[in-house]
Amino acid sequence: MTSQQLYEQYTAQMRKIADVKYALAVLQWDQETYMPSGGVAMRAQQMATLSEIAHQLFADKNLGILLQELSAAEGLTELQQRNISLTLEDYRKNEKYSSSFVRELSEAVSTSYHAWIDARKQNDFAVFETSLDHLIRLKKEETQVLGFEDHPYDALLNEFEKGASVAWLDELFLDLQSSLKPLLLKVMDSPVPEQAFLHQHFDKDAQWRLGLDLLKQMGFDFERGRQDLSEHPFTTNFNTGDVRVTTRIDEHNLASMTWSCLHEGGHALYEQGLPSGQYGLPLGEYCSIGIHESQSRLWENCIGRSLPFLDCNISLFQQYFPSLKQVSSRQLYAAVNGVKPSLIRTEADELTYHFHILIRYEIEKKLMEGSITAKDIPSLWNDLYKDLLGVAVPDDKNGCLQDIHWSHGSFGYFPTYTLGSLYAAQFYHYMQSGNPGLLKEVGRGDYTSVHQWLQLNVYQYGRRFTGKELCNKITGASLQLGYFMQYLTAKYQDIYHFD
Amino acid sequence: MTSQQLYEQYTAQMRKIADVKYALAVLQWDQETYMPSGGVAMRAQQMATLSEIAHQLFADKNLGILLQELSAAEGLTELQQRNISLTLEDYRKNEKYSSSFVRELSEAVSTSYHAWIDARKQNDFAVFETSLDHLIRLKKEETQVLGFEDHPYDALLNEFEKGASVAWLDELFLDLQSSLKPLLLKVMDSPVPEQAFLHQHFDKDAQWRLGLDLLKQMGFDFERGRQDLSEHPFTTNFNTGDVRVTTRIDEHNLASMTWSCLHEGGHALYEQGLPSGQYGLPLGEYCSIGIHESQSRLWENCIGRSLPFLDCNISLFQQYFPSLKQVSSRQLYAAVNGVKPSLIRTEADELTYHFHILIRYEIEKKLMEGSITAKDIPSLWNDLYKDLLGVAVPDDKNGCLQDIHWSHGSFGYFPTYTLGSLYAAQFYHYMQSGNPGLLKEVGRGDYTSVHQWLQLNVYQYGRRFTGKELCNKITGASLQLGYFMQYLTAKYQDIYHFD
After folding, report:
1. The pLDDT of residue A102 is above 90
2. Which one of B66, B198, B460, B484 has the fewest CB atoms closer than 10 angstroms to its CB?
3. ipTM given for this complex
4. pTM score, whole prediction
5. Catalytic residue check, A264
């Protein structure tokens, strides 16, 4: 058999595995958008079965042999070789998991998710504690399964951002904290911009239509995707031709839906832009979660919270909400960039946001090293919010029950949000330095250059490079805190007028 | 290992197979409700993969051995034995199919479905012909795979209604045709009831809310199900706790949405009422498609198009649509039972409806025996409509492209609609004879007795009996044409005042 025939065998098997994984994603999307409560129990079981099948298909010994053969084969293109080496890496990792562990984890995630929903309804962490505790035990077991050199948490961090480690993040996050603190103090010393007009009553249907308009404007292709409502906004995809975003609408907070749409839209453009011919293969997948987050933050913050974007869109806001007729784009710009230490991560400004991440990072690190357990979370959470942000957490819903992530078993995910902001600032800097007219284009609602740049520099590569490698390739340097601090300082100087 | 331990092994494997099949049903539901057009190609492949996996799991040799052991085992309950014998029957049937055939069929169905959608848009059967032709060839191959004694079509009829055959249906349908013809002539000789008020403009949202109210009234549990919109209404379920109905809304035809809701609601009540503890096992499944259809027709027609039902609900209709304020329940009753030979099956009255079925039955029979092929369908269709209903088919959309069934590969399904009407009339007769106050209860919107009767006589048994057996058990007789003719004649005499 020729190398190309072997490669065909490999792609056929990978497509089949992807089919099962994406079917699982459809079930998950349905669970979080439309599924009635009566479907909970059996859906958990159905998703666990699909997880187990996907795992077994990928653990197939013949696939292992095929990958070995292909690793040594002559005549494959460079990209084919890259697919093979990445798949072999994944294969060896998958081999470490037993089917029973995969199933137990999937079932624990479903149970936890619904316990989290219930706990939020009852505003009581205790309702979530038992199933979260089970999940944490499984995740700690997973760190052993995966293996690590220095810190157990490294094993999980690596799942979302290859090469990430406690050693790296401890240093980066310490620098971040020391850079953000003085900036926060300066901002807090300045007059607070008017934000009240963002908290009038904003009709649900009008918000929904505005969200769709913004998604269209940024280039989301509705022939290859759709938006729905869910408790917690997310983006998922079943192939590059079917990318789904969700949002939620707060009738007393226009910013909540609006910048969530831009955020998820950024994720979605990445998924719609990945190479469709590589379905099921590493080169058809996103680079890393950190890079994925850079895409959402680039659109949500670098573009979406910029003055040119708001200059362009102020009339659209006013068209949907006549009560904003007296608000100028500069006032809106100041309002949506208002800085104030607060309780809810997803509603935080770009500055204090990262303190929310630092808190979660500390808690996860301690959970994984075993120095605390689930029951310790609420008090530690509340203490850290007091220490770092100076806010008193009134209850669990506004505290440690606010995020979906732990209920999904996603430990190690939060740090990628901060990495995403840092990558986004660094990328946006390079995008602008190569195109001095870029901000003018954005001010006209013309994203042609932005799309081309992202397609050329990010989307087309899929998982070909790690996040760190991609950053080096694009900007000629590793991830630097400086670009983010420069971006943030410039914005707040402009709004708060300090030196 | 004890018999009960073996039985546990069996149920575990069956649950797993059901998980995959229901996951497939979620993908199908999504495809017909929310999926963007860009998802078509990969969704077809994803569904084919799940079909193939379900087939392979069920074809597992170890399951065959287990079923053999359990067939001979002592100490199983009667119901457990029944599950085993039905599963063994299914297993032997499944063994006849190769994996490649299952995948080819699933892919052909997806392709055909989208070709059918396109053909309808372009109003041109030719767009559908090639993929339908491929599907028909596969279905003919399937009749050979399944085997048959007399007529190849028998193999497919049996898939939907065990024990059904061309010999049986030829005779039954001939009787039906000779009974319906004189009744139709009498009705056609009488003055036509006023129907124009059903074709005013009826707001989409108000219709949607009316539909939900009617589903609630009939006892559909929205904690264990939901309704959405789709091109063609259908009911599906992912377990008894998650049953989905769909509807479509025509703003110029109030009856279209209304009685479709009652129809799908009848199917849904059956699925919600099946024994949830038997998930994945035959006793947790519906009896037959004919019996399933009897449930939809009982609610749609026997109850929904009756005077007591309309007496009860006229004020609800008027509340949503003030333009109906001048319409009495008797006028509405006459209007929704107006008889007129027409082009579209799903909008046909209860009398001419069966001519639509007879036409499809004849065409399917000929396709399966090979005396015609796909290309002959339009002209044969149009000729039969002329002969049997006296109507001229103007185009394919109003002719042979109107039904989704063939695009789904569902050959042998149509006759069950007529069987369903006949079963429904026979069941409703017995339900009333055991409870003389029943119609009064229906007139008050009180369906307690109806639910209890259906739960006791139909729902609780799942697939324990065949349709024919169930009919005998409930009514002490095999399926009789007489009950249906009696029901229909009484209704039309009441409305049309002939002797």
Report:
1. no
2. B460
3. 0.92
4. 0.93
5. yes
